[in-house]
Structure prediction request, 175 residues.
Amino acid sequence: MRKIILTAALTLIALPVLAQGQAPAPAPAPMTGYTNTKPEFTDIHMERAVDRPAAAVWAKVGGYCQIADWFNTPCKYTTGNGEIGTNRALGPTGTTNELMVAKTPLSYAYSQPLSPIYYHGNLSVEVVDATHSKIVYDLLYDTAGMTPEAKAADIARRKTRFEQGIDKMVELAHQ
Prediction:
């Protein structure tokens, strides 16, 4: 028994000395599925003026599954009730999952947790004055690895699609 205790004590004393010459332990695996160590983040910023008060606009377009109305795509909650932590499944097969990660009275932000491009979006309605507002939508994602031509085409495709959605939001806000 004394021999076991002595061996354990010597091992504990020697560990710091032995560890000095070793490589550091690898970083833990990411929790999101995102693994790019050299990202190139791209932000697509879009906004539209609306001749309505911000709260009235948000009431028409700001619910987390109201995307179905302005993007013409099925939407259902798979977790939550429209507050932070709610996951919405989009599309006919529900394969696009977006997790709400932040919310204010006139905005929300979401991420696609397992996206290989670390995709995030933010929708807000900002007050301009008592009777006017603007819809602001930002997309942030990693375009590293894309050729300049592919990156330009991807940005143009996303911008066109989302601007159509924003135009539909303006139309809904005016109804």
